[in-house]
Structures are given as C-alpha cells and as structure tokens.
Amino acid sequence: MRFTPNWSIGWYFIPIASLWMPYQAMKEIWQAGRGGDAWKEDQVPDFFPIWWFVWLFNIFVSKAVLRNTLNTETIAELKHATVIAIASDAASIVLYLMFLSVVREVCRRHTSDPSKESDYNRPMQESLPG
After folding, report:
1. pTM of the model
2. 3-class secondary-structure state, position 22
3. 120 and 42 Cβ atoms separated by less than 8 Å
4. DSSP character at residue 42
5. What is the dihedral of CA 61, 82, 72, 66, to 10 degrees?
6. pLDDT per residue over 48-92, tens digit each?
C-alpha cells in the first residue's frame, strides 16, 4: 500500500494536501479490503466523491461561520451568521451519516472472508444508516 496508517491520518493536518490526500488514502483503504492481488483495480463506489465533496463543503462553511460570527456587530449580522451556522450544522449531520456508512462498509470489507469473492463485489448500500 502507498499510505501508511500514520499518513492516512496525518494528511488531514497538512494544508493544501488535506484537500485530496485523505480521500486518496481512504480510497486505497477501501480497495485493499478486496484482498488478493487485484485489489488495486477495485473501484470505489459513486458514494465516495459525494462524501468527499460534503466533507470539503463542511470545512469551508464552518470557516465562514467562524468569520461571520466574529465580525458581527448588529442583530441583522448575527441573524445572517446564525443562518450560515444552521447550514453548517445540517451539512455536518449529512457528513457524519455518510462517513458512518463509509466506515461500516470498509470494516465489512476488511473483516469478510476473502474466499467469498461475492462479498467483495457487492455494491455499497446506497441508503444512509438509520
């Protein structure tokens, strides 16, 4: 594998690289769950790019919330900052549910019996947990 366990986490803390390297590490972890020699050819589900987009969206909205909240001087500005905070919280809820689905599926792939090839070809559940 290209990413060590430490770097799979460490990429989240490196500016600029944190915009794509954690996604690449999670993609490799997903693929490695297939087992066997062909694990590098395993494709991630369509869910992955959506999850990563929501992750990045949440980061940028959270920063906007912080900036707006610190710079409020009037009630109208505070209301505006509150609306942005609510959007950020809603995105966070979606993000956490999506990430829970990703982690559950990665765990399933890594703990399944590799001799059961059909387990590895089964598509990830499209529904969110709940």
Report:
1. 0.67
2. helix
3. yes
4. P
5. -30
6. 888 888 888 888 888 888 888 888 899 998 898 888 888 888 888
- Give one word for 11, left, alpha or beta, with left for phi > 0 and alpha for psi -120 to 50: alpha
Which DSSP letter does residue 17 get? G
CA angle centred on 31, ends 25 and 32, rounded to 5°: 90
Cα–Cα–Cα angle for 68, 72, 73, rounded to 5 degrees: 165
Give the CA distances from residue 62 to residues 38, 54, 100, in Å, rounded to whole numbers and listed in that order: 39, 12, 20
Q: Classify residue 18 by its DSSP letter.
A: G
Question: Would you state the structure tokens that stand for residue 73, as one six-digit string?
Answer: 């001087």
CA dist., res. 23 & res. 8, Å (int) = 9
Distance CA 123, CA 102 (A): 12
